[in-house]
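On clarity, I found the account of how folds are encoded harder to follow than it need be. Since the whole study asks how a given chain folds, the encoding of that fold should be made plain. For illustration, here is how one protein appears when written out as sequence plus structure tokens:

:::
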Amino acid sequence: MVQKLGAAPVRVLIVEDNRDICANIAAYLEKHSYILDFAYDGISAMHLALTNPFDVIVLDLMLPGMDGLSFCKKLRADANIDKPVLMLTARDTLDDKLKGFEAGADDYLVKPFALQELHARLQALYKRSHGKTDNLLTVGELTLNKSTLQVYRAGLRVDLNPTCMKLLQRLMEEAPAVVDREALETLLWADELPDGDALRSHMYKLRQAIDRPFDSPLIHTVHRIGYRIAEDA
């Protein structure tokens, strides 16, 4: 069930032991902007949350194996995962809601609920959390913070000169698409191109910094077209 919200799909983990509710959610959300994964108990949900990059988690309170409050507490305190959590429950008292927020939930939706409201709350949570990471570009184990101009690969700091930094940022912004040579040359020199193949020289320096110290290359040449950055060749 792959849909798109803007440029990228939004990945949601639905943790709910009632499979009829899951089916209804899937039937509605598949028309919109989501990749959906499902877990029917708290333990399976924790495994999925720890091993997948979800954008939002929809969490039922009453679950077999591990209840929703315990799941949320472990997610925040033990796993240090701060992805937004929308808690679903039939409990509608103020005390129940406060317990949910204290456990780490970001929003609360009482059953029975309208699917349109679920969709609206998911969008709001995604946009709110996504806005916090707009300055962080990530490709595999490589990250670039556009605010601080700090680059890390596999936890190690990578130092780049200003020209290489410009090239890397453009490649990461377009990843995994190919950026043609003309676009990169225009980025660096506008209409005043230097003599020779200066772009190749700068790309060599960038590769020395980004790829050479590591086992697998991220920067790939697309012959006669340009360059791309991606985990796959």
